[in-house]
Amino acid sequence: MTTRTIRARDRPVFGVDVHSGDVRGDDPSYALVILDPVDDDDPDAPDTDEPMARVTRDVVSFRKLCRLIDDRKPLYVATDNAYELAANKNDLVGFLRSLPDGTRLVQVTGAERPEPLSRVASRHGIPYGKEPMKEAEASARLAAANVGHEVTAFTDETQVKVSRGRSTGKGGWSQDRYTRRIHGNVRKRTRQVQSKLKEANLDFERDVTEKYGGYANATFAVEARPEDIPVSNSRAGDVRVEVERERRDGIEYEPLVKRRDRVIVGIDPGTTTAAAVVGLDGTVHALYSSRTSDTADVTEWIIEQGRPIIVAADVEPMPETVEKFRRSFDAAGWRPTTDLPVDEKLHRTRETNYDNDHERDALAAALYAYDDHEDQFERIAAKTPPRLDREAVIAGVVAGGSSVEAVIEGLSEDDGSGGGDGGGDGGAEETDPTEPERTEEEETIRRLRERVGRLESHAESLEADLTERDERIAELEGELEEARREERIEARSRRAVSRLERETDRLQRERDEARERADELEGKVETLKELWRLDHSNFGDVAADQGLASVKVVEQFTLDALEAADEAYGLVAGDVVYLRDASGAGRRTAERLAETEPRAVIRDGNLSEVADQVLFDHNVPVLPADAVPVREVDELAVASEEAVAAAVDDWERRAERRRKDEKQEHLDRIISEHRAGRTLPETEE
Q1: What value does the mean pLDDT take over residues 127-154?
Q2: Are strands 636-640 and 548-554 parallel, antiparallel or unpaired?
Q3: Which pTM does this prediction carry?
C-alpha cells in the first residue's frame, strides 16, 4: 500500500474498480482507493486550516471490501459502473441494503447512460489513467467533489417494526400470563420508540395490532433515512425491533448535488403557453404547458430547470412575449429565417413524447436552436481548458457575446483571485504549505508540467471522442450500406412487381376480350340456330335428302319430359322419338306418347312391361339404341334412315311372331275353357 496526503472530506471516501476477474464469474478482486481524513494531531498533516486526507491504495476481494465498508462506514463508495459490484439488479439491491447507514453508492459517470470515466475526469480536472487503481482514484476524487449520481433502490421513508421476540407457545397453566407479559413488553417498547421519534421531530404514521394484554406488533412509517432515526435494529427478551427502508420499484439515480446547468429554452406563447428545456448536448430535459399560468409561473419553472443561455421561438419575427423572457434571463435569442413548417417540426421532435402541439412547437424551437449552435459549442469546448467549466465558457460566448479567449481569461482570473497572491498564472494554482519555496525556474517548470498534464488529459479526452466518433462513423457507414442494399433489393422488387402487374393487366385484358368474343359468338350461334329452324321447319325433309332421319330427343320417359319436348319442337305423327332414359314409365305416360303416333321410339334403357305393352298395342315400334345409333348436335339429333328402316322391319317381324304367339295362347285358353266346362277370364289383348 502507498499513501500520500490530498484534500478530502471529513469522512472516508472509497473509490472502487475491478482489478481482475468478473463479478459474474470467479471471485473478483478490486482496486480500492480510500481518501481518509487526517487528524489535526497527525504529524504528516500540513500546517493549514483546510481539511486534509490521506490516499490509501490496496487490492482487495469483494468480501474484504464489504468488511472494510462495514468497519469504516465511508461517506461514499464510488465507482464508474455500479454493476461492477453486482451481477444483476437483485444483487445490486442486496448490496445497497447491506451498506451501513449514511454510506452511499455513487456512480460518478452519470445515471442510466453513463459517460466514459476519462471524459468526466477531464471535464473536472481530475487525473486519470487506464489502470484499475488510477480509475478507482479518479472515481474517489470525483465523488469527493460531489460529482456523480447516488445509486439507490430505496425511498427516504423507513419502516420501523416492533414485534414479539419469541413465540407465545402452545399452551399451559401459565399460558395467559406469559402471553400477557409478551404483549405488554411490545406495547412498552412501542411507546419508547414513539417517544424517540417525537423527540427527533420526525414525521411518522403508526399502525398497531392490539392483542390480549398489549400489542402483537406495531409499525412506524417514518419520513426519514435510517441514519436520521434514533432507533436501530435490536432484539432483547420478548421484543424485536427491525428498521428497514422502503423499497422502490427499481434502481434510481439521484444527483449528489442538484446543479442548475446552462440550457436552451424554446417558448410557444399564446392562450396555452408551452416551454421546452434542452441541454447543451441536445438532450431534452423537460416540457411544460398550461392555459392558466402567467409569465411569473413560467419563469419560475424555467429557473428550476436551469440557466437559459438561448431563448428560441419557432416563428419569424420573434413574438414579444418570447422577447420578454429572453431579456429577463439576459440570454441570446434564436428564431428561424422563416416560420418552421409543421412537417419539419414533427420530424425533428419524433423521438420525444409530448402532450400537445404547443409543447411540440416549443421543443422544435429549442432543438433547432441547438442544431444551429452545435458546431459552435464543439469549437468552444475544444478550446476550453479541462479545469474550467465548459458550460460557463459557452454561456459567456453565446449569451455574453465575448470571444472564447476573453471568457477563458476572465474565468481564469476569477479562479486565481481566490488563492495565493494572485500574481500571474500562478495565482490560479493552490500552493502546498508543506513544500519548500521554489526558485523561479522551478516554478516555471512546475507550471509547464501542469500545463502539459492538462493538455495531455485534454488530448486523451479528444482522442476518446475521436475514437468514439470514428466508431460512430463506421457504424453509420455500415447502416448506410445496409440501407443502400435494402433499397436496391426493394427497387428490384418494385420493378419485378411492376412488370408482373403489367403482365397481369395484359392477360386480364386478353381474357376479357376472349370472353366478350365468346359471348358474341354464342349469340351468333343462337341466332343462326333460330334462323335455321325457321328456314328448315320440316327437318325430316332436310334429313331425307342426306339419308338421315330426324330424331326428337326426350330426356326422360315421363309426362313432364314429354310435355317439355312437345313445347320445344313439337311431337307429331311420323316422328322418330329418342328416349334418353326409358325406365320408370307407366300406362298414362305410354298412352301420351302413343297418342302422337310416332314412326318409332328409340329407347336407352329398359321399358316397364306396362309401357311396352301399351306401345305394342298401339303398333308403335320400340327400337333399342344399340340398333339405331343417334348423333346429336345441341338439341338436334339424327339417325341413319337405313338403320331406322332396318330396325323397324326387324321389329315388325318380331311383332308378327308376338301376335301369333298371343293368338295361339288365346286359342289354347279357349280350348282349355271348353274342356273344363267353364269360362276362363279374358286376357288383355
Answers
A1: 89
A2: antiparallel
A3: 0.41
